[in-house]
Design goal:
Blueprint: H1 12-25, E1 31-33, E2 39-41, H2 43-52, E3 58-60, H3 65-79, H4 84-97, H5 124-127, H6 134-142, H7 147-159, H8 164-172, H9 177-194, E4 201-205, E5 208-212, H10 215-218, E6 227-232, H11 243-254, E7 255-264, H12 270-277, E8 282-290, E9 296-298, E10 303-305, E11 307-314, E12 327-329, H13 347-357, E13 363-366, H14 373-381, E14 384-389, H15 392-406
Parallel strand pairs: 1-3, 5-14, 6-7, 6-13, 8-12, 13-14
Antiparallel strand pairs: 1-2, 4-5, 7-11, 8-11, 9-10
């Protein structure tokens, strides 16, 4: 490999297109060479010109080795039609040569992730440190790329570092970043599901308990009228609608009189879900969580969904204790990392419902723990928590999140 050929070779399609252009128009951009004839930039143009027997103009480069390597990277980033992952790798090399540190010292960055962000051996926080600081933005603008785009590509490349096959598909346009993220997430979830299941009952700390199993069975021992609030995200696809009847009966038994259930709902079957909750509970209100980023698209009815309903039902006549704000916005870009639960919800809105429905020290229950967002919200806000899930992988993920937060 030539010393200054720092990028991957052109794929067959790109090389064929370049060859056809040179055959028709000749070499229009001079090849950059050093005094000894070593090529700094333009290896593919030079090789194709030799194959075709056409004249190849050259321009003299007078810099040293470091300057030559930087020039090769910069010119290719400016001119080559690189896929987002290949572009990010080249950009990282150029940044390092400029002394710009990428992925260092930014653990508190709150910018949201836009793609998978982490491989199966990394954590989400590791890649929320990518590409912060003024240097990255200055270099990106020099190359004619918005800094936000540069940072997004860097995070994408970091996410796919351990998945070269998916990276190649993204660069070729075969799949987009979201589909790559989903494939990684599914693979990671399968690995988690194959692990040994956690114990049936785990007390993470005082007042935080997670159980493995169906709530109709493993939460049957909860005393009547002992729970201060239920905050949950039930399955709300067509198959999950009947569960709302069982949830209604469960809540009517365990909730203290006048206390609330807050249940995330789906809009397609919202009426059926509300009717089933109303079987044993009293309707109180309908709240909303506004969703950032890309939204649900219902092509059959030409609707883009930008919010999620939150049904509020009380056990008996509702007894208000303080004002409730019925809407909040989910933080972040609405995109999950590859180690997240498929239906993982943003913590912020859940925490706000927990704080509004239960006082510090009171007991909150979630019969559908999922990734443990309600449990995490209770841990953060000083509420006691009891919840369960039928999936061992979900319980495992919840325990990991709770123990990491506690540490």
């Amino acid at each position: 490999m030539e010393r200054f050929q720092l990028l991957p070779p052109l794929d067959d399609g790109a090389r064929a297109a370049l060859r056809a252009d040179i055959e028709l128009h000749g070499v229009q951009v001079p090849v950059l060479v050093r005094g000894d004839g070593e090529i700094v930039d333009g290896h593919n143009r030079f090789e194709i010109a030799e194959e075709l027997g056409v004249h190849c103009p050259t321009a003299l480069f007078r810099g040293d080795d470091d300057e030559a390597a930087e020039a090769a990277l910069r010119l290719n980033l400016l001119r080559r039609h690189l896929g987002p992952v290949a572009w990010a790798h080249a950009f990282r090399q150029l940044a390092e040569r400029r002394g710009i540190r990428i992925g260092q010292g930014a653990r508190n960055d709150r910018t949201s992730a836009t793609v998978a962000e982490v491989g199966d051996s990394k954590t989400l926080a590791d890649f929320r440190t990518v590409a912060q600081g003024k240097g990255v933005g200055v270099l990106a603008r020099e190359l004619g790329v918005p800094p936000r785009t540069a940072r997004r590509r860097l995070r994408l490349a970091a996410a796919l570092e351990d998945h070269p096959d998916l990276a190649a598909k993204v660069d070729s346009g075969e799949i987009d970043a979201r589909k790559a993220a989903e494939q990684i997430r599914i693979a990671n979830w399968r690995k988690r599901a194959e692990q040994a299941p956690p114990p049936p009952v785990v007390s993470v700390e005082d007042g935080i308990e997670i159980r493995l199993g169906d709530f109709r069975e493993v939460l049957a021992d909860i005393p009547d009228q002992s729970v201060d609030a239920i905050v949950c995200d039930p399955p709300y696809d067509d198959a999950g609608v009947p569960v709302f009847s069982d949830l209604s009966a469960f809540a009517a038994r365990v909730l203290k009189p006048g206390r609330l259930l807050a249940a995330y709902c789906g809009k397609s079957d919202l009426l059926a879900q509300l009717n089933r909750l109303n079987e044993h509970l009293e309707y109180m209100w309908l709240g909303a969580v506004f969703l950032p980023g890309r939204h649900v698209v219902m092509r059959s009815i030409c609707v883009r969904g930008r919010w999620r309903p939150v049904a509020l039902f009380s056990s008996g006549k509702y007894e208000s204790r303080h004002w409730i704000i019925d809407a909040s916005a989910a933080e972040g870009a609405g995109v999950k990392g590859p180690t997240d639960h498929r239906w993982q919800q943003a913590t912020g809105p859940i925490a706000r419902w927990v704080e509004q429905l239960a006082e510090p020290g009171e007991l909150v229950c979630d019969p559908f723990v999922g990734s443990g967002t309600t449990a995490l919200a209770c841990q953060q806000t000083g509420r006691r928590f009891l919840g369960c899930d039928v999936e061992a992988a979900s319980v495992s993920l919840t325990l990991e999140r709770l123990k990491a937060a506690a540490a």
